[in-house]
């Protein structure tokens, strides 16, 4: 089971480790290439593979304090990252709170205060666009010098290219914004999913004849919105199908993005359950309806289209 480390205390014993540092938002194929290199080296040395993450992500922190309108859409929240990293075989994750103090640390001070007191770094794996520390001065050349001084080895993993496009979190966000879920799946090596616990809602879906599982996404900006045919995991051994609205719900004057999922042929009470919702196909954009009757008619049509989509997929 993956070990979660929240700022080690003074009693924390120095851990021999192969490490990698970054936001790892989306954990796309480029990230996975880095993690694969980490794991291979860690298994060779028989020590832990440790990923070091920031919360909030550095780009979120700087946007929030300089230009809140430019906060990048979050691809994977903290829990989703941990779930994926665990499935990939990572041994431990150190989560560092990204704040003004951390942002001000030079690359040298970051290593001396945040890394070396807690980890006996034996090997460090980086990507081809690697920077850290104040003014992003912690780069590959800086780490080469540190490796000589501290006695660890370093490897740089080249970027992954798909049809001439470098796979990156930015590329994933762009594909999501264009609702190209097939391309997103190519970049991620898996379908795009959102996770969360089912929360109590206003019960409007049930009144309209379509009970929904309401999931708060715990992110400031969502990379994609609309109405989707979805697959649902977490309600038993089988993957279930359904239709979901991801957005602000303009007809009922919603104020924050919510994921509302109607699971086909399912009518159990599931408050508090943790679900994974994979977006399979976008049916339409969100739009405002004049009244709940018009909304109900559209939900009926959305559900029909989603069922028809899955029926066609089954026949292929």
What's the quick description here?
This protein is about 35% helix and about 25% strand. By secondary structure, the protein is α/β, with parallel strands linked by helices.
CATH class of the largest domain: Alpha Beta
Mean pLDDT: 91
The total tally of domains equals 2
Structural class: alpha/beta
Structure write-up:
The chain has 316 residues and is α/β, with parallel strands linked by helices. It folds into 2 domains: 14-166, Rossmann fold (3-Layer(aba) Sandwich), CATH 3.40.50.620; 192-315, Riboflavin kinase-like (Elongation Factor Tu (Ef-tu), domain 3). The protein is built from 10 helices and 14 strands. The strands form 3 sheets. It has a 6-stranded parallel beta sheet, sandwiched between helices. It has a 6-stranded antiparallel β-barrel with strand order 9-10-13-12-11-14. Strands 7-8 form a two-stranded antiparallel sheet. Helix 1 (29-45) links the parallel strand 2 and strand 3 (48-55). The protein is elongated.
Tags for this entry?
316 residues; Elongation Factor Tu (Ef-tu), domain 3; single chain; Rossmann fold; 2 domains; alpha/beta
Summarize the topology.
Elements (H helix, E strand, L loop, with lengths): L2 E4 L8 E7 L7 H17 L2 E8 L2 H9 L11 H11 L3 E6 L2 H5 L2 H9 L3 E8 L13 H11 L2 E4 L4 E2 L2 E2 L2 H9 L3 H8 L4 E7 L4 H4 L5 E4 L9 E8 L6 E8 L10 E6 L10 E11 L7 H24 L1
Helix pairs in contact: 7-8
